[in-house]
Task: structure prediction
Amino acid sequence: MNIVTKIIPFIALIFLVNSCQQEDIFEIPNSLGNEENAFLSTLMSAIDAGQKSLVSIDYVKDLTVSGEATEITSDIVIKGYVVSSDATGNFYKEFYIQDNPSSPSAAIRMLVDITDSYNMYNVGREVYVDLKGLYVGEYRTGDGVITVGELDSAQNRITNVRDEVMKAKILRAATTTEITPLNVTFSQINDSHVGIMVQIEDVNFTAYDVGSPYVDPYDSYDTRRTLEACDGFSKKTFLLETSAYADFNQDILPEGSGTIKAIVTKTYDGDNLVLMLNSTQDINLNGPPCELLQLSDFDTVLNEQFNDAVDGSNFDYPGWVNFSEVGSEYWTEQVYGGNGYAEFSGYRTGDDVNIGWLVTPAFDLSSATNAYVSFNLAQHHLDDEDNNTLEVFVSIDFDGTNVKTANWNKLNVNIPGEDTSWYAFQESGLIDVSSYSGNNLYVAFKYVGSGTNTFLDGGYYVDNVLFLKQ
Result:
């Protein structure tokens, strides 16, 4: 009887522990504990009272200098929504938060010292991060992935936030919101998308990879497989990276075409952008092969290759507008190796600030069903891509003269950055502007730089501007 009396409570204890573990694994808690509620309530009260400031994720990312660990000494807070999950083991001791659940513009990585973080920081969870005393920078110096964490003083780099610090600093709200992936094409993905959940359509694995496992059995850490997708008149490729520790690492890559939903991140060394899955459920390749567009189905409205450029002269093409908003410099015509193009450079202008616009002739979309624009861009001597910028805008109310009175919408374009080779043109891919049908559409290239700050005097090229409609 004594043995039975001792065994029964022990069995009950095992059952209780297992029950708690199962609940922890399969049920995401939405209600907050008393301690968690108290921390969050105190933080929100401090924000309401002006003792702490709620700032954007972009603001915090800009605090880092050359990727080095930078201590946050001010009372600032960021709000975000979790988009990555370690439930399948593809992410480890980290999760990404983006600034909006459906139309994100920025994301940042949280480096944490716990596993199975998805039990608390599940996808869609609204999170507030009290940043004072934490650090922002790169975990692997030079990888370009801006991260929030603590300081590894021995190596002067970001390290994981300890569990006890997380409880006071990385605070989840009770709200879980559905994340709507940002629809992009492979040619549109750039560094600004790191940490953001995206969706790409008309995707398939290359014939070479179909039938292989996600992770090569001989790879100890991760494997990259090649995705391809129809992108206008050609196919573009992109890498999918999978951790050797993912529980789907030996699942077989499917054939077929369809959609993929994944997080944009970077390779270990930061040399390449890659996609990473939360789960294989985020791949749906049950459709037929995608079909490329045929140039013969479209009317070519503009195909400007600047073959008549006069080397070194101010840009002066019929129908185009060359406008200097700040400073004395204008866009110029350039020729190199027989190729003409437009250029704006702040080098030796003598102006503290240069802002110059180059606006295309009107793209008549009054009767268009489908319409696309594309162009080639290049950079040279770029040292600070965040402040020495090229942006591309469109407008339907530009009067053909006054750039400053028009309403301009920014296009999601992959702009050549510091990591791209000087003078190497890259294609924008076809940019769908069909939503502007019924109007005259203007495309503008806006340069910002400086002629007195040598870190901001880099130049940008524009070439091969193409307008297509049907």
